[in-house]
């Protein structure tokens, strides 16, 4: 007999930009967490490809990156049967709501976004309006699904805060329209740092490829990068202040083996950094192996990928169009008769 479960599952929305390589940092810091939320929550995930063109893309490469990122996220364990996983540009409600929200977002608010300031400095030759209004598109992504929770890294917290302000402002004018989303802080957060400069976040845009491990790196490359990771001169595997490199490697090892810091310290009590780095490399290789195998199968299966992203986009459209229609009506647009 079915038990009456009237409690609605909370809605989680998150997205990632398909701009090139997906790193171990993306995987352990965000994706692995998404995967584990799929049963307990009603999850909706997207590849934020509209956001990606705020930085100039080469068309063929961009197309390839999006398809590869899609296959890789499926390989990591996103199950589109449970959690619609779509490509943002396939669901037209996103750009439509983003325009409306732009008109409820202040210039000054956007100007204060630190990511805008950073990216404008980094791409000084192309400080386009899309880069500036990026947060209102992100707000549209989230608010269209009436998301209760949004897993975001520290770098996106400010954007989520702005999303909440936009939602509250709109609700204040027109009555309750949007769910005001909260940040989802994972129980065990993993902030994976650069292997070469462990005070900085691991980033795929790092010029030094030894600074990051890509999820699809070959085993020998993963081993080399781990062995070359920057550590300290204490030669003692324990976490502590000023030991950013070792703290980071312990964090990685802990994520892929499930061991606690205490257990790791014990395992390497009388061993040096060389042994530890080799063990980290091997554990990462083993952890990524099944993902790489699934990826190799999926990327050959274009029809299956197309089916997954198409069905997901259809589901996402039917959910999001309800919010969009509500918004259009409240603002005062003449309802479409078709
Ligand atoms: N801006 C996010 C990033 O670069 C990606 C993103 C787009 C996102 N839309 C979102 C994240 C909505 C969470 C919710 O990481």
If you had to describe this structure to a student in words, what would you say it looks like?
Strands 1-2-3 form a 3-stranded parallel β-sheet. The model has no long low-confidence stretch (mean pLDDT 94). The protein has 338 residues and is mainly α. The protein has 13 helices and 5 strands. The two termini are 43 Å apart. The radius of gyration is 21 Å and the shape is globular. The structure holds tryptophan.
Short summary:
This protein is mostly helical.
Offer a few descriptive terms.
two-stranded parallel ribbon; binds tryptophan; mainly alpha; 338 residues; globular; Rossmann fold
Approximate strand percentage:
5-15%
Largest beta sheet, briefly?
A: 3 strands, parallel
CA-based shape: globular
Number of helices: 13
Summed up, the domain count is 2
Return the average pLDDT rounded to an integer: 94
Total E-strand runs = 5
Going across the major beta sheet, what is the strand order? 1-2-3
- The helical percent reads 40-55%
Q: Calculate Rg over CA atoms.
A: 21 Å
Written as H for each helix and E for each strand, in order along the chain, the element string is EHEHHEHHHHEHEHHHHH
> Span from first to last CA?
43 Å
**Ligand kinds:** tryptophan
CATH topology of the largest domain: Rossmann fold
CATH class of the largest domain: Alpha Beta
Secondary-structure-based class equals mainly alpha
The CATH architecture classification of the largest domain is 3-Layer(aba) Sandwich
Low-confidence stretches: none
């Amino acid at each position: 007999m079915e038990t009456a479960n009237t409690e609605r599952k909370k809605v989680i929305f998150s997205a990632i930009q398909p701009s090139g390589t997906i790193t171990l940092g993306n995987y352990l810091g965000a994706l692995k967490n998404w995967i584990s939320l799929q049963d307990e929550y009603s999850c909706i995930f997207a590849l934020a490809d509209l956001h990606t063109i705020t930085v100039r893309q080469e068309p063929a490469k961009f197309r390839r990156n999006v398809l590869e990122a899609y296959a890789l996220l499926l390989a990591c364990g996103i199950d589109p049967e449970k959690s619609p996983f779509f490509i943002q540009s396939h669901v037209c409600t996103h750009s439509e709501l983003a325009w409306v929200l732009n008109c409820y977002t202040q210039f000054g608010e956007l100007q204060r976004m630190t990511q805008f300031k950073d990216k404008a400095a980094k791409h000084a030759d192309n400080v386009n309006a899309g880069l500036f209004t990026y947060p209102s598109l992100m707000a549209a992504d989230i608010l269209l699904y009436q998301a209760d929770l949004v897993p975001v890294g520290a770098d996106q917290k400010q954007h989520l805060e702005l999303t909440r302000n936009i939602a509250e402002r709109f609700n204040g004018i027109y009555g309750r329209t949007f769910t005001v989303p909260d940040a989802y802080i994972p129980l065990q957060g993993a902030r994976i740092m650069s292997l070469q400069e462990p005070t900085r976040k691991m980033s795929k845009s790092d010029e030094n490829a030894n600074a990051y491990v890509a999820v699809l790196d070959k085993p020998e490359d993963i081993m080399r990068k781990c062995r070359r990771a920057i550590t300290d001169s204490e030669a003692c595997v324990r976490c502590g202040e000023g030991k950013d490199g070792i703290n980071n490697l312990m964090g990685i090892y802990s994520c892929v083996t499930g061991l606690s810091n205490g257990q790791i310290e014990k395992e390497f009590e009388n061993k040096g950094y060389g042994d530890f780095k080799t063990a980290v490399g091997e554990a990462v290789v083993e952890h990524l192996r099944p993902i790489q195998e699934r990826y190799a199968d999926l990327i050959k299966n274009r029809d299956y990928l197309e089916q997954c992203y198409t069905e997901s986009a259809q589901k996402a459209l039917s959910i999001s169009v309800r919010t969009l229609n509500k918004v259009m009506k409240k603002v005062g647009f003449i309802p479409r008769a078709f």
